[in-house]
Amino acid sequence: MNSEIPKVFFVCPGIGHIHRGYETFTRQCFDALSSKTQIRARLFKGAGANDQLETAIPILRRTRLIARLAGRAVLRNGYDIEQFSFAIGLIPFLRREQPDIVFFSDRELGLLLWQWRKRSSAKFKLLFSNGSPAPPPFDRWDHVHQVSPEHYQTALSAGVKPEMQSLIPYGYEVPKPDAILTPEEKRVLRAQLGLPANRIIALSVGAISTAHKRMDYVVREISSVPSPRPFLLLMGQSAGSDTQKILALADTLLGQDGYRFMSVPPEKIGDYYKVADLFVLASLKEGFGRVLLEAMSFGLPCIAHDHATAGYILGKDGYLADLREKGTLAASIHQILKNKEDLGIRIARNREIENRFSWNSLSPYYLDMLCRVASGKGTNPNSLYSEERVGLTSSVAN
Asked: How far is Cα 252 from Cα 262, in angstroms, rounded to an integer?
């Protein structure tokens, strides 16, 4: 604890068995920062191989029957049981290694660590990465990492002091421009993936649900696009019976040859971004919307609901519309198809994301935040992330 170089625990129970925003962010953040000399980084995860810097803690996984049954017995859910089992497994490492900071995204885990810290002699600081986002107050955390100006301003308006929070967007491992394929390269890869060679492919990534990602709305809107309408590719985790209802709807409205539902490992999803022609995110609110970064980095034109955080990510390079309304998504798709974008525009999108959201651009800001939190200095307003500092220049116009 007294070393001049702060020791930082990156903790995320879902790494190794869940693939979503928290897990991807924590994994990539650790990978980007662990070799830096300004901090001493350790990663604690729920599954995977161990090495000198990474430790997998045995947990009751949220998806397993035993966790769901245990949760039901105490009027909680499998996720809560997973978080509790992870916290119990983490405590011996906290005692032995005495980190300066615990950097976390799972709020339930943070609450458990806060409660244990109150009852022990531990001195580590709790740094909450607010990707959900959770609303203020944040009186149990020592510092809050805000990923969007919208949520940063909301906290300021609620009385959270500027020095208690840092505004730094999620970083992303941006592919090289050669990941954006020519039409012929697309046809070859589509054949390998078993996808239609000559149809427009609309891609939507996320939990196949009605409540948040609103995949049922996507299906209905695609079905209303005049022939030849796009082929719909739905990629993400199943939400059980909700997913089955959406797939039944797609069978009825699109036909079995008009869509596909798939779930693939994270290392494979890039191929599907490469062969798509446009991307749709129909959720009305997002903590950040990391999939928009992914889609833009592969050069895809993106359609999203017109809310502040989506606008922040896409800027004038995206297609924002009121996706609460019937027909607006279909109209946006029609606009994209009419524009007939060339390869240069798609490469420009990739470069835009590289400038604004790559780990190369953002790592210095994360390191500054971690060092300041460890020292107790709080945020220096002059060191806050700003797009001017990473050379933001809008180079794509609709």
From this structure: 18
> By C-alpha distance, which of 334, 279, 288 is closest to 307?
288
Instruction: Report, in angstroms and rounded to the nearest whole number, the Rg of the chain calculated over CA atoms.
Output: 22
Locus of tokens 């997913």: 243
Give CA–CA dist 80/86, Å, rounded.
Answer: 10
Q: Return the residue matching tokens 């309304």.
A: 325
| Residues shown for the chain | 398
**Which tokens belong to 59?**
């947990």
pLDDT in tens, 234-275: 998 887 889 999 999 999 999 999 999 999 888 899 999 999
Low-confidence ranges of the chain (pLDDT < 50): 1-2, 388-398
- What is the signed CA dihedral for 62, 67, 72, 77, rounded to 10 degrees? -20
Domains, the chain, ranges and CATH?
A: 7-171+358-383 (3.40.50.2000), 177-354 (3.40.50.2000)
- For 55, list phi and psi in degrees, rounded to 5: -135, 125
Whole-model pTM? 0.89
Handedness of CA 310, 312, 314, 315 (dihedral sign): positive
Q: Return d(Cα 64, Cα 329) in angstroms, integer.
A: 37
- Please choose, from the candidates 203, 342, 213, the residue with its C-alpha nearest in 3D space to the C-alpha of residue 277: 203
Which of 235, 231, 236, 237 has the alpha carbon at shortest distance from 202? 231
For residue 249, how many other CB atoms are within 10 A of its CB?
A: 17
- Give the separation between CA 199 and CA 334, rounded to whole angstroms: 14
